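User: quick one - fold this with uridine-5'-diphosphate bound?
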Amino acid sequence: MKILVTGGAGYIGSHTCLALLDAGYEVAVVDNLSNSKEESLKRVQGLTGKTLEFHKVDLLDKRSLNAVFEKSSIDAVIHFAGLKAVGESVSIPLRYYHNNVTGTLNLCDVMGDHDVRTMVFSSSATVYGDPQTVPIKEDSPLSPANPYGRSKLMIEEILQDLHRSEAGWNIALLRYFNPVGAHSSGLIGEDPNGVPNNLLPFITQVAVGKLSELSIFGNDYPTPDGTGIRDYIHVVDLALGHIKALRILASNPGIVVYNLGAGRGYSVLEMVSGFEKTTGQKIHSKIVARRPGDIASCYADVSRAQRELGWSSERGIDEICADAWRWQSKNPDGYE
Ligand code: NAD
Ligand code: UDP
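Assistant: Sure. Structure tokens for the protein plus uridine-5'-diphosphate:
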């Protein structure tokens, strides 16, 4: 069975390509390399001892995308390709809507033309916005607070409409919480452009000496220690969730929505002390003002994924910190 992975050279995509190859799937990747390097895929092939097809194609280039489907006999698609920086989406919203929404429309058109109607889509916990209650269930209100989150919700709704309009579409909408960590080899991991926006890559770059100190965005939230709480999910566990989703679509056709998270929250201070304890690295930090748009607490109710997919996260916070640090210390400049 051959899986087309859009955005497969990226952070979650590369870990998922590795998991797919390990599980015996054939893999074809479409990526425009706008936020990744082909080196990640070379390393995935080195780690698995298996080959994959790589097509440097932009989803906005429908003709080239069509050519990939003409050449390769694709059975299902895992769709990661998209822009993901929340702050950037506020300053250049049209680019986000065009890339994420139009890219997905092109993909659906080309898939339909080639009778490929199984898709696993990367949605995000950002579709919930500021939750009224935690843990967040899949049927909680959806209220994204920025263009990035709205692009994800629009795509979810487009895919729901597509499924309603035409029987035969099998779609899994996977809402990721906070993907972190790296493959245990330390050979693939997250390689953000410039100064990282996210907490864990920031911590590892302080530890490796690329950044001087961590700014903790607020200690006056209504949480036990005052810092923000998030649900950090190991990227390898997340990757395995995609394989479970492919399996459920094969056995139970239809459209499904799952939260993929660890199901418990950690504060910023807990993450910093967890990292220091596991790695022995001191993280210099200071408390600064809250980051605009941040919420106090966000973590998943993962009981639906546990029950229906038979999936839950296995790698805890120690493994997350150890793996993130192994990747960062072995590759201080990412894939450069
Ligand atoms: P990433 O940026 O590392 O990977 C995305 C990949 O898509 C990149 O390799 C990029 O080059 C490619 N891409 C972007 N636009 C494209 C286009 N038009 N055509 C072809 N390729 C294109 O990001 P990631 O962290 O691996 O995230 C993967 C997906 O998961 C994204 O859709 C993201 O929105 C979603 N997601 C990520 C997180 C997170 O915190 N990392 C959380 C929730 C959801
Ligand atoms: N955070 C922080 N300093 C940073 C980056 C993040 O204090 O340099 C905090 C942030 O306010 C939030 C948590 O760490 O409470 C996770 O932030 P991240 O950007 O990784 O995820 P998101 O907020 O998008 O869920």
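One thing worth noting: The two ends are 33 Å apart (CA to CA).
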